[in-house]
Amino acid sequence: MNHTRRNFLKFAGLTAAGLCVASAGGALAVSGAGSAIRDDEKILKAKRWAMVIDAKRVRTKETIDTLAKACHAAHNVPDIPGKQNIKWLWAASFEEAFDQPNNYMDEGLEKSLFPLLCNHCTNAPCVRVCPTKATYKRADGIVAMDYHRCIGCRYCMAGCPFGARSFNFMEPRLHLDLAALNKEFPTRMRGVVEKCNFCVERLAHGKQPACVEASQGALVFGDLSDPASEVRKLLREHYTIRRKPSLGTEPGVYYII
Amino acid sequence: MKLYNGGKIITGLVIFLGIFLAPLAYNAGKAAYIQPKLKMPENEKECVESKEFMRTKHMQLLDQWRDWALRDGQRMYVNSKGKVFEMSLQKTCMKCHTNKAEFCDKCHNDASVTPYCWDCHVQPEGLKK
């Protein structure tokens, strides 16, 4: 062959192209083994999951604690004494919950407590500020977290106006009853933020959220976009409020007051 | 031809080669690496995919499972033979591989890798204080 510059460049170009094709083929071959994915036949689906809480029926510390216990047991949430506690569902007073102080409130409301949890907002600030997309919005309205990706920057905690997020300042396993762990759900590690996940892992297998199951009907969970759903029926029949509606985050948790 | 500072250079080269080849000398005559004997599940003969695939690609598979289950909400995996598995480390993998120390750790220790799965996922033996 004639050793000219032109021939050399042609050869080099072809070699480079060949290497590109070969490595791209290798990368494609990695994904799966010619397999498919699908969801469980029993899965509960919705366009927008929402919860209606009949606050008249859960208004004491004890009743809200039963809900919190069911939730925390299902998700291996530790109970840490002091300010560093982790909470997915907790109790708070009317003023803490709804930001509508009233000097002369009726005694019933003034003394009662309200179960609070992540509102799974339509315009969730935590999703917007998360730099790693560890917190993301699912198509069914649930604001979910991928703890593998969380870097513990706590922007989401600063962004959430509802205090629904907790940071693991310490190893959560130190404060868990290791004998009573739910072995079907992971724990978290030190340095990640966590919050209520509307029980996506239970919905995926056709089960209602743990707190709804434990509430004996006081909490109702359903599809907000379906006019015939149980939540829409309750919203039609009762006066309900949401937490801090003026912020425009569109919470998905409604309270019958 | 004259080599300036020849003595120092040659000594330096000898020392360098000595250090560089020390691992070879150290391991000379020792048996070659053998894959560790793993404790295989007793009730189940076939894994999610073939043994070779699982051995070399289980990390990629788990990575995809996580994204499919969490991000896409699709939790069922149909393998190349049409068998269906739930995509879950704790609910699927660990139901058969019931011993982390006798299965996961053996290869990971030999390969000197420390994946952080168990910082959050509960190992099948359960946790102790």
Give a written overview of the molecule.
The complex is a heterodimer of chains A (257) and B (129). With 257 residues, chain A is α+β, with helices and mostly antiparallel strands. Chain A has one domain (49-256): 2-Layer Sandwich (Alpha-Beta Plaits), CATH 3.30.70.20. Chain A is built from nine helices and eleven strands. Chain A has helices at residues 5-30, 61-74, 94-98, 107-111, 125-129, 155-159, 200-203, 210-214, 230-237; strands at 36-38, 49-54, 89-93, 113-117, 135-137, 143-145, 166-167, 193-194, 219-223, 240-241, 253-256. In chain A, the strands form four sheets. In chain A, strands 9-2-11-10 form a four-stranded mixed β-sheet. The termini of chain A are far apart. The mean pLDDT of chain A is 92. The model of chain B has no long low-confidence stretch (mean pLDDT 92). Chain B has a domain at 60-119. The longest helix of chain B has 22 residues, at 6-27. Chain B contains four helices and two strands, in the order H-H-E-E-H-H. Classes of the chains: A alpha+beta (257), B mainly alpha (129). The interface between A and B is medium-sized, with 34 and 35 residues.
SSE blueprint:
The complex is a heterodimer of chains A (257) and B (129).
Chain A: H1 5-30, E1 36-38, E2 49-54, H2 61-74, E3 89-93, H3 94-98, H4 107-111, E4 113-117, H5 125-129, E5 135-137, E6 143-145, H6 155-159, E7 166-167, E8 193-194, H7 200-203, H8 210-214, E9 219-223, H9 230-237, E10 240-241, E11 253-256
Parallel strand pairs in A: 2-11
Antiparallel strand pairs in A: 2-9, 3-4, 5-6, 7-8, 10-11
Chain B: H1 6-27, H2 51-71, E1 76-78, E2 84-86, H3 89-96, H4 104-110
Antiparallel strand pairs in B: 1-2
